[in-house]
Amino acid sequence: MPGALSNIRILDLSRILAGPWCTQALADLGAEVIKVEKPGVGDDTRGWGPPFVRNADGTPGDAAYFLSTNRGKQSVEIDISQPQGQDLIRQLAAKSDVLIENFKTGGLKKYGLDYDSLKSVNPRLIYCSITGFGQDGPFARRAGYDFMIQGMGGIMSVTGQPDGAPGAEPMKSGMAFADIFSGLYSAIAILAAINHRTVSGEGQYIDMALLDTQVAVLGNQALNFLVGGAVPQRLGNAHPNIVPYQVFETSDGHIIIAVGNDRQFAAFCRLAGLAELAQDDRFVKNRGRVTHRDELVPMLAEVIKTRSTQDWIETLEDASVPCGPINTIAQVFDNAQVRARGLQMTLARADGTETPSVANPIRLSATPVAYERAAPKLGADTAKVLGDLLGLGEDDIAGLKGKSVIG
Where is 65: in which H helix or E strand? Predict the structure, then answer.
């Protein structure tokens, strides 16, 4: 069954994470994605390991990092620093619906591959640029990387143990938070632009910035500040607006208890042998529990640590009190629900190399996600793409290879 985006061709000049995460999501939905890479080098993340996948012949292959974000694409090696390489990109852009890139602001203009240059050859082209800080403003020409954007964008100021606690310091997310969200927002923007083009016939330029995205996803913490005026602080695993909603120590580990309403709090107190707390005027309503968290949480913690994690989970789940374990990633993939949903997959390249992968979480009833391509070997599709789309013959391709225009 054709994917939802099977009529869309994307020319992907991006590398590392934000751009490739966007194009992988679109590839999963059926788009044809042509990933342009530097000949002989490729996307930097091909070497960001260990671990590395084993090729079918037993030799070391690409890094797991690269495999995590480049499923579903074709790899074409083109040197865009050479005029003939630039001409190949222009020809491919003329036959594409979307171009995505994450060069520094203005970085492609010197090659004649900026939006203003390419829209003259394809007025319907949707051109998405992802940068650290966007196309304007005092920081526009700075390089931006996820870690520094997490710091500048505020998320690290509310992540980590509170001041005075052991290990207290600002803490980044364990994943590239700003990059991944920027990739997802870019995919949303591209889909919006595709719909606009369907109505108007016009392409457009999309300006995406990691800093913009990081600030946008501060969510309730941003509004806590904008409404209340108080600067949010690090709370460790506690929640600024809900109590109890945090990690507690058990007799054999830890548990997350996520009480989201007053009914759940009363049920928890009854099961924990603390029914009187649910009648205490300080704690009956969530607003009071937040105000008096320093009094309430130690009383809860003293009881919770007397029983095992699994004992609490079984007890609380029966009463519909949200709770759960803190799994290692190994435990995640061994989880019955994760297995039932088919989130772990293995894809195979044409040469038989098997590459593990994690399924797209989108479930569409009429146009389901299809996984037709493993993350490609560098340059695996150069000849085919240039032959099929641009009509280049074997001699043409050999000539370009001889000049190192393509790999």
Answer: helix 64-67
56: which DSSP letter? Answer: T
26-63 pLDDT tens trace: 999 999 999 999 999 999 999 999 999 999 999 999 99
- CA distances to 279, 289, 341, 364 from 337, rounded to whole Å, are 36, 33, 6, 19
What CA–CA distances, in Å, run from 97 to 8, 38, 69, 182, 389? Answer: 6, 22, 21, 20, 13
Place 1 in a pLDDT band, splitting at 50, 70 and 90: confident
* pLDDT tens per residue, range 73-103: 999 999 999 999 999 999 999 999 999 999 9
Torsion of CA 304, 316, 245, 303, to 10 degrees: -10
**Does the predicted TM-score (pTM) go above 0.70?**
yes
Catalytic residue among 28, 79, 114, 179: 179
- Give the whole-angstrom CA distance, residue 136 versus residue 343: 40
Q: How far apart (Å, rounded) are the C-alpha atoms in residues 247 and 361? A: 26
Residue 69 Cα distances to 40, 45, 59, angstroms: 20, 10, 22
Q: Which domains does the chain have, with CATH numbers?
A: 9-216+339-402 (3.40.50.10540), 245-328 (3.30.1540.10)
- Locate 87 and state its tokens: 């001409």
Token digits of residue 222: 């941003």
CA angle 271, 277, 283 (to 5 degrees): 120
Name which of 40, 43, 39, 41 is nearest 12 in CA terms.
43
- For residue 43, indicate whether it is catalytic: no
* pLDDT tens, position by position, 297-318: 999 999 999 999 999 999 999 9
What kind and span of H or E run contains 383? helix 382-390
Token readout for 309 is: 């994690």
